[in-house]
């Protein structure tokens, strides 16, 4: 049995903890490998944020000709070369992942890379199962950064069907003619945009009546309306059974009009993620879980076991890379300076959905403000009402702000439309640093006629004294 100063489980955000300040620590990283090629480096790099956005940008380029005609520019899309797109993207990703693995395995003398599945057998005691053996390790400190994986719903017949998740769908050998996407969240909305723009007929299945239903009510309503124009959108549906018929997947549904069947050459399951607490046997390690099944941590990312920290998707309320990275920096500090621990700041966590149109959001939605009885005023500014929106002939995008009527401070900001994540960033800054809407609007120049005038006008529209 080997004892370490520090064991890190998971090479996603966990991999970034180690820098020169840990050079004299004896460290083990345990990584089981992720995705179809058992890659190093976690979800975001290999099967998450980064490749998806490389596909989204490609789809946005492929979508440009269809938007040209209304500006008087007639363009044709001559074709998309799926295997070239896929191999270009993973040609970059796979090289970065294997480079990251090689760096830890070969260039860090103080780091031992264990390639296998780590599971707790006791408090600060682990077994690592590799292909040919099981090795026991112990440590003074352990960081659990083991993330999560796609959830697979319990639908009769699913075990006999060829289906994809976000882990596999980006490496399809060829584009299918049709694709059923189960789930109307982030993953469903982003892949529906990618595949439909590249020429696949998309059918999207949702249990509720809205797409992206956790967004602000107006944002979700607008996105649902637009999604219904682009995809065969089937909402308020329940999956009854699924079957494989040669190359076809057939899904039996129950909906408002009764029973119905949809079929396609590919099925993508995008119904959320489950934390990998079972894989690590969190209970055997004495780690308390939350009601949602994640590892319970305090504000300093400490678990219920002294000397064990957790971060990212396995413990966080937010399954977002910027949050995992923030929590990683907190854990990093607290490992190095246990006498002066710092806390994670989850007050103003933004997110973006890179679909079409794009969505970006921070803070309270209108429905959350109402449910919590928080006094607020609202403003809405459409892209169609600003000069750059005229240039783009945008007719569907808008920014919606919620502010405290007393202080003028922003409570929430939600944007649907071109460059939404970029436009949201100054509003995140204002919320984080306590800048009130009036000062933000009138205390600086806004480049004319730039897209940020959307934000300037939304701020000025707030009914504040
Ligand atoms: C399709 C998709 C798109 C996304 N896009 C975005 C985006 O645009 N923006 C954004 O902010 N977020 C996005 N996310 C979310 C983001 O990827 C995650 O929040 C983030 O990667 C979580 O990081 P982590 O370090 O907690 O976990 P991970 O990166 O998942 O790392 C955990 C690692 O632990 C390993 N592991 C698990 N169990 C064990 C074990 N028992 N032993 C050894 N190793 C183990 C896994 O193999 C994995 O490599 C996306 C997610 C998906 C699925
Ligand atoms: N741009 C980004 O930041 C980005 C992109 C992709 C993923 N992510 C992260 O990954 C997480 C997982 O994404 P996701 O889209 O899988 O989850 P999600 O939670 O965003 O959406 C899943 C949806 O599927 C629904 N659902 C559950 N069971 C269903 C069923 N049987 N049939 C139909 N619908 C069902 C849920 O009600 C929910 O609306 C996200 O919550 C997000 O944090 C982020």
UniProtKB/TrEMBL annotation:
Keywords: Disulfide bond, FAD, Flavoprotein, NAD, NADP, Nucleotide-binding, Oxidoreductase, Redox-active center. Its cofactor is FAD. Residues 4-325 form the FAD/NAD(P)-binding domain. The keyword Calcium does not apply. Residues 349-458 form the Pyridine nucleotide-disulphide oxidoreductase dimerisation domain. Signal peptide: none annotated. Disulfide bonds join 44-49. GO terms for molecular function: nucleotide binding; oxidoreductase activity, acting on a sulfur group of donors, NAD(P) as acceptor. Coiled coil: none annotated. It comes from the Bacteria. SUPFAM superfamilies: FAD/NAD(P)-binding domain (SSF51905), FAD/NAD-linked reductases, dimerisation (C-terminal) domain (SSF55424). Belongs to the class-I pyridine nucleotide-disulfide oxidoreductase family. This is Mycothione reductase. It comes from Saccharopolyspora thermophila. The lineage of its organism: Bacteria, Bacillati, Actinomycetota, Actinomycetes, Pseudonocardiales.
